[in-house]
Amino acid sequence: MKSQHHNSQTRIIGHRGASYDAPENTLAAFELAWQQAADGVEGDFHVTRDGCIVCIHDYDTQRTGGQRLVIADSHLSELQLLEYGSWKAAQFAGQPIQRVADIVAGMPEEKLLVMELKTCPEIVAPLLQEIQSHGLTKNRVLLIAFAQRTIAECTRQMTAVAAHWLTAYKRDTGTGHWSPTVDEVIQTIQSCGADGLGTENRTEVVTPQYIDSLHNAGIDQFHVWTVDDAEQAKYYRELGAWGITTNRPAFIRSALSDTLRKLPTGGV
């Protein structure tokens, strides 16, 4: 690497909980993530027809609930009739859909909830009520979204809570160039007022030079998703990642802890 931004405080975030071992976005996955020493959990959030925020990745319940109910067209009570665990394994049968209150109730005091907002921008108003009612501070919640408008609304209405804008990358098969470029990423973050970047795991894009460009623009935080490979996790940690989102918190924790034990005095 040309330059290093070594960060021994890189947070390990369970992607939809410890979803390698347990059904994503369920209490079982979140509880397992805490047992696996995750610093935080990431979940996906939609708004129901009656204005409740629920934790589920897809826009409907078919894949994880076994029947197709569109979240935005369904009441919470309808979604609660389904179970969201047996698709993963029989031992998880009966897992209910999670509300914000359910997740916060089981979240250890020092841990973090990373909320990916899938619905824009109508999720912002009820989300503000949830954050206020549960006393979630910047140290306990991070908001993330691909939609620039959603991030802009979050930063406008919830100044005490941090937000990261998410991006994936596409490669032009003709030129070999990746988009968005780092300059476009910086422009978007600055225009929507995000506190940092949530980047797709692309080591060919997220280079030391890429991170230097972010830092030079005053963007000091970035997290990366989804990283289940030990060497990639070490790479992003050396780049100074604020957080690494993984389906396997225990595995990545062990890999990074082993690296720390091998570092010479004074670190890198």
Describe it.
With 268 residues, the chain is α/β, with parallel strands linked by helices. Helix content is 32%, strand content 20%. It contains ten helices and twelve strands. A hairpin with a 5-residue loop joins strand 2 (40-47) and strand 3 (53-55). Helix 6 (148-157) packs parallel to helix 7 and helix 9 packs across helix 10. Mean pLDDT is 94; it is low at 263-268.
Treating each run of at least 4 consecutive H or I residues as one helix, how many helices?
Answer: 10
Describe the global form.
globular
Give a count of the beta strands, DSSP E runs of length 2 or more. Answer: 12
Secondary-structure element string: EHEEHHEHEHEHEEEHEHEHEH
| Sheet of most strands | 8 strands, parallel, barrel
Write a concise synopsis of the structure shown.
The protein has ten helices and twelve strands.
Secondary structure elements and their pairing?
Layout: E1 11-15, H1 27-35, E2 40-47, E3 53-55, H2 62-65, H3 76-79, E4 98-99, H4 100-105, E5 112-117, H5 124-133, E6 141-145, H6 148-157, E7 162-167, E8 170-171, E9 178-179, H7 182-192, E10 196-200, H8 208-216, E11 221-225, H9 230-238, E12 243-246, H10 249-262
Parallel strand pairs: 1-2, 1-12, 2-5, 5-6, 6-7, 7-10, 10-11, 11-12
Antiparallel strand pairs: 2-3, 3-4, 8-9
Helix pairs in contact: 6-7, 9-10
Keywords:
single chain, TIM Barrel, two-stranded antiparallel ribbon, globular
